[in-house]
Fold this protein.
Amino acid sequence: MRLDLKEIERTYGNTTILFNVSAQVTDKEIIGLVGRNGAGKSTLCNVIAGYDKEFDGTRYVYPQTHIAYFKQLDPSFSENDVTVFDYILSTQKEILAIEKEYHELLALLATDTSEKTMERFGEAQDNYFNLGAYNLLERIGDTLTGLGVNEDGTGERNVSWTSKMGTLSGGERKIVELATILLDKKANLLILDEPTNHLDIRGREWLEGFIRGFEGSVILVSHDRHLLDKVCGRVWDINKGTLYAYEGNYTQFKKQKEDNYDALLHQYETQQKEYKRLQEIYNELKRKVLIGGGPAIVGQYNAMRSRVEKFEKTLIENPKERKAAFHFTLQKPPGFGYNAIRVQDLNFTYADGRVIFDHASADILNGERIALLGDNGSGKSTLMKLILTQYCKERRLYPKEYGIDAFFEKNKDNLGDSISIGPSVSITYYSQNHAQLDGSLSIREFLQTRGIRDEGTFQGLIRRFQFDKDTVDSKLIGDLSGGEKSKLQFLLVMLSQANVLLLDEPINHLDISSMEVIESLLMEFKGTIIVISHDQYFLDKVITKVLKVTDNKINEYVGTYSEFLEKESRKEKSK
């Protein structure tokens, strides 16, 4: 046994985040922790890790349990002038101390072979090998490479081991911080809160292998359903502050939850009918008491009141309210011709001389749902922006509406006739960094700039997209969470009524229930979709074709994402 939680409650002000949570973590088990954004997942992780002590209930960590915790919040670094490799090395102080002690005692044995020295050396030697001090540098290199940070800066990320920490983006710093956690050989309980958020597909595959090979226990908070399916043997689902435990991986959890939902809904409806019947009897007895009923009526009234009060304590929550997610619709788009977008003999080089496309070509047809794949820095997002640049140029549209005004000004005259847009094509764009959203405006002010001025229409939209009524006027968009910004961008997609959707990492900040809403809508959409995503589960559900950007070209694979992976696997094996 690693950890025991009993009747944990955590309250902030008047809001209860965790209610009566009891759970155990046994040795060598992998638990997926799921729930909507704001459900309390990170709060529970903070309690388990010992960061949060302001709770009611009991947290018991068994002896010999050592916890390592990767937090979701962005880390702050003061060592901006330190290289990536040296920063990670500096975080391994205990291992470095063990290495130093081992070599010092090894040297001492040349002159001192006393029993005390031999005993100290034996203990130091055990620590040296058991805690991985002997191959620390090699493990740092393997971990960085696995997470997509290569020594020379090539491949999945444009970051090298000698890059200065101060030059890294927030996502790149998170990857470095993840590496420091995974290197802790002493840890036998890992808490990983959204570890895949900034990893590409290869990095996610490496992390999957690491977790499956880890010899301790893991609590994994993730929206990556593919990863949850591959590694988890148990799922904790937090809903309205309560923890529900399910055996099995994510797919098995979903089936159990659906089965439970149907049974719970039947129980709720049956209970509500009985509650209504009891209330009617109670109200009738109350009416008779008020008009002067005798002692027998008063006795019946008091007995019924007691019965209703007891029954009310057994009432269960409406499962439909628990299950509700944000919802919207995509209108049937206006029809257009066979070819939506044609890329022909495209050449593109950045100002720093980095070649992105060299005589690249691709055809994007009406109705296709395309995954745009490639290593980070290969040109996926750049291709989307080039398509938008040509679209804005042809239609004389304002590129700031898409958040690409600076890119447009630099590149509007560099495309020639390499990209052609079908005459009936209407494009909307989902930017992964929410570039279309004006952070200085409230949600109401921003939607007013998009023509939403009628109060009834506005209120209907914020209900459907589950925006907090108290924040639509008082909170600036720049202060919204990633999930809230994502939903606001999808609201723009809905309003556009476009027939071609360019979606750059559209589900990164969404919880699983919201992802499922997006998947269903995209699968039913009759227009064309081009999507960049590292979520394999999402791609398996949605796409029908792959365009892979590699070696400055665009290669085409017709079929599902799983079929594409199979082709790639066969290709690798044949080499």
